[in-house]
Design goal:
Keywords: Hydrolase, Metal-binding, Zinc. This protein has 217 residues and is α/β, with parallel strands linked by helices. The protein has one domain: Ribonuclease Z/Hydroxyacylglutathione hydrolase-like (Metallo-beta-lactamase, Chain A, 4-Layer Sandwich). It contains 6 helices and 14 strands. The strands form 3 sheets. A 6-stranded mixed sheet has the order 1-2-3-4-5-6, covered by helices on one side. The protein is globular and about 45 Å long. The termini are far apart. The relative contact order is 0.14.
Length: 217
């Protein structure tokens, strides 16, 4: 069974995820932890559940999703996986981080690259890598078919979608990819987004104002 635990970190109220199987093998996705208190919250949960964190994944590399990358790599001795098209996005964070007040930001380089359609192992479970660019050029989503759950990053939110006015954003492409990649999943699929509460594919197919049947845009 796949277990998903969410944490809400940093001033952007970003959702970070710890995903693990029944054996306790875990991966950390989009660690936005920036303060000592936020890092302790994550560490305490890992210790309480006796988890072994073996990999670090980014859905994409905007600042709010990567603030804890360098810390997590060192703390758990794990490699960072991103999509290759996110390399410049990740590198740019160290340039603009001070503008957002993150003067102590420490950069971290990717160790491996995610591929569209790849099955990424989490112990005995597998996450399928879906390529859903538009919010960011190399944005990926992690889908667990057996449980009908996915970590969606900043692609699809409850009643909204990821913003596309940042460098590398593409509004039309995001709409297209949500419809082709995410809306092809079963209606009961639970989407755990990068911000805000979870939602389901079925709900968004009808009610999302950008891409749903009742879309007004």
């Amino acid at each position: 069974m796949l277990h998903i635990k969410s944490f809400t970190f940093n001033p952007f109220q970003e959702n970070s995820y710890l995903v693990h199987d029944d054996s306790g093998t875990a991966v950390l996705i989009d660690p936005g932890c920036h303060t000592a208190a936020e890092r302790s919250e994550l560490e305490d949960y890992i210790a309480a559940k006796a988890l072994k964190v073996v990999n670090l994944l980014n859905t994409h590399c905007h600042i709010d999703h990567v603030l804890g990358n360098a810390w997590a790599k060192k703390r758990f001795g794990i490699p960072l996986w991103i999509h290759r098209q996110e390399i410049p996005v990740l590198k740019s964070v160290e340039v603009y981080a001070p503008n957002y007040g993150f003067h102590g930001y420490e950069s971290a380089e990717a160790d491996h690259f995610l591929e569209e359609g790849q099955l990424f192992k989490v112990g005995e479970e597998s996450l399928k890598v879906l390529f859903v660019p538009g919010h960011a050029p190399g944005h990926v989503v992690f889908y667990h078919e057996d449980s009908g759950q996915c970590i969606g990053g900043d692609t699809l939110f409850k009643g909204s979608i990821g913003r596309t006015d940042l460098p590398g954003g593409n509004h039309d492409l995001l709409l297209e990819k949500i419809k082709s990649e995410l809306f092809s999943l079963p209606d009961g699929t639970v989407v755990y987004p990068g911000h805000g509460p979870e939602t389901t594919i079925g709900f968004e197919k009808v009610y999302n104002p950008f891409v749903g049947e009742r879309a007004i845009y």
